[in-house]
């Protein structure tokens, strides 16, 4: 399926897209007025793979993985697979030397089937099923993150005699950070982890230490998502080292690892704040070194878990306009996808930016609202965006920052099949995930 597309001349951009651009670094405006990514015109992709279609820029993924690796050369960088996972993605991440977070037997099986080294895989989850745990042990995952007290004995009982499973304990440092309450996981009163403040974290550590088939290698925390400031992570280091210090004083134990989770912000619209890995690395590693020195603790090896930061900006969603209409004082542009392929507006009230990518237009821009095709008024992709006044059915629109938590969260709502994913790199495009067909949907429906 990897047919080379005709080579195209790419004129230089009038200005370099800055580091916080919402578009992949390879984005170019063509002489025709269309937009290309990875050297491939988006209009060609829309024709070849149909719409809606997700385009992922392989080099952007690799460069983003490298940005974390070079910012933290002594740490492990574990990509959070739930942001977006497929076999090609796993191969790129493996080649870039990343580790991988998974939170189900399904993600785990996909990774193992692709040949991703199991010892570089971490299994998370607040409610791991017996199948999740059995699969993790069978495939030999490197780490399992304990998320509740009840899970400790349950996991230990599944570990075969004579072997030991490495585990981390997920603690709640009591830090409110993140773009929406649905993604704030660093505070008490939500479902993840074991609070430090109430003593549950310490209690879990003691229980794990009492299980000879579990090897406790460190603590884990994950504060939330879309966090643009380094401050909450620095606070987390302080609180986690505080707990490490207490565990050493009271129980005589020290640990070689510390996993600070992910949640690093990306821009969805121009002007949005992003988290930069370099200042993060500088402040977090110096805080860790300082606090450990004060507490006379060995400095643990750090793990970070970027998901969205690596996949999000590498993806662009392509839609075709189906209808344009004025209602009240608003101009609506309806496209052939929406909340079935991107539930984030409906879940978190997120709004995107949109660009006409298939052709040039010299018609003055008007303010419009871009909506999806689904049967809910909340199915809104972009509100009050400026688009050329001659937008019409058949036009191809591109939505940037679509690489994370779209395809992985897509549904079959309204029995619209889930969209395909195509990779672009150096002027070539290839299909990674094919479109879900009506036949795919029909064969699951086995009753009468
Ligand atoms: C979701 C998740 C991540 C990644 O979050 P992003 O916001 O995509 O960076 C990392 N670690 C854990 C435990 C998670 O649940």
TrEMBL record:
GO MF, any single term: diaminopimelate decarboxylase activity
Pfam families assigned: Orn_Arg_deC_N, Orn_DAP_Arg_deC
Catalytic activity: meso-2,6-diaminopimelate + H(+) = L-lysine + CO2
Domain Orn/DAP/Arg decarboxylase 2 C-terminal: 54-403
Listed pathway(s): Amino-acid biosynthesis; L-lysine biosynthesis via DAP pathway; L-lysine from DL-2,6-diaminopimelate: step 1/1
Keyword Lyase: yes
Single biological process term from Gene Ontology: lysine biosynthetic process via diaminopimelate
Residues that bind pyridoxal 5'-phosphate: 263, 305-308, 405
Enzyme class: lyase
Modification sites for N6-(pyridoxal phosphate)lysine: 82
Keywords carried by this UniProt record: Amino-acid biosynthesis, Decarboxylase, Lyase, Lysine biosynthesis, Pyridoxal phosphate
InterPro entries to which the protein is assigned, alphabetical: Ala_racemase/Decarboxylase_C, DAP_deCOOHase_LysA, De-COase2_C, De-COase2_N, De-COase2_pyr-phos_BS, Orn/DAP/Arg_de-COase, PLP-binding_barrel
Chain sites annotated for binding substrate: 308, 344, 348, 376, 405
Xref: Gene3D superfamilies: Alanine racemase, Lyase, Ornithine Decarboxylase, Chain A, domain 1
Cofactor names: pyridoxal 5'-phosphate
Orn/DAP/Arg decarboxylase 2 N-terminal domain mapped to chain residues: 59-311
The EC number(s) this enzyme carries: 4.1.1.20
Subunit and partners: Homodimer.
Summary of the function given for this chain in its UniProt record: Specifically catalyzes the decarboxylation of meso-diaminopimelate (meso-DAP) to L-lysine.
Protein name: Diaminopimelate decarboxylase
Organism listed in the record: Streptomyces olivoverticillatus
Gene responsible for this protein: lysA
